[in-house]
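Quick one: co-fold with ribulose-5-phosphate.
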Amino acid sequence: MSFGKEVRMSRIFRGKNNMTVMLALDHGMALGPMRGIERPRELLNSVSGSVDSIMLNKGILVQCASPSSGAGIVLRISGAATIDGPDLTAERLTTTIEEALRLGVDAVATSIFVGTPNEHASIEACALLSDECDRFGMPLLAVTALGKDREKAFKSRYLALAVRVAAELGADIIKTYYCEDGFDKVVEAAVGIPVVIAGGPLMDSNSQVLEVAEKAIKIGARGGDMGRNVWQSEKPIAMLKSLRDIIHEGVTAQEALLRYWN
Ligand code: 5RP
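Sure, here it is.
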């Protein structure tokens, strides 16, 4: 990895164990002002100090984030499709590496939609972006996104395929989902590239979220890149702190849940 990429990666993966608590709040670009991210400025203010990194789009970064928050910044640079449009997976790149450099961010993120009619376009865009990221020393986070088929999210065979595709394209960080059965195969498919897990839609309980984080970390994930299960929880900051305890301190989900309520 180039020196520039390593510098930027070190702003995202932190602490003795080189892991990340990343807060995703990039959802508005496709889903609008969902519950929990109606006031991103307040949210970003309140989480500063509890996160290692944040993942968001340019407008919210510039308008609502503090340049001196100290959080690593992952700029999403794919989108241009909404929940109200014909196809949420029909993403395009929305800005450039030059713009990302100008904004001082630490990584850029794009989605690949493996197994959807848009897999070709999204994989090709990610591959070309990977070359450009190499040129500028900018880490690339590939989001292995799902189409409408949420069932796939829990199948390691599918997740491993998507993760391996991202690794083959030259991603530096791969975002995927945790699955109960065979998550070790998903991590293995990343061939050593750091894997971070999304949370997906709000889970049934806080303990479930923390258990997913604990299991994913034990199996080899290098952090969480969760959104809804943090900012839609009753206590977003407490949830982030509990995730942090699991990710950076190796506490159990049970202990993290106790800390959440206390
Ligand atoms: C979607 C994304 C989101 O950032 C991702 O889904 C993480 O958020 P959540 O934990 O709410 O799923 O990249 O493609």
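If it helps, The mean pLDDT is 96.
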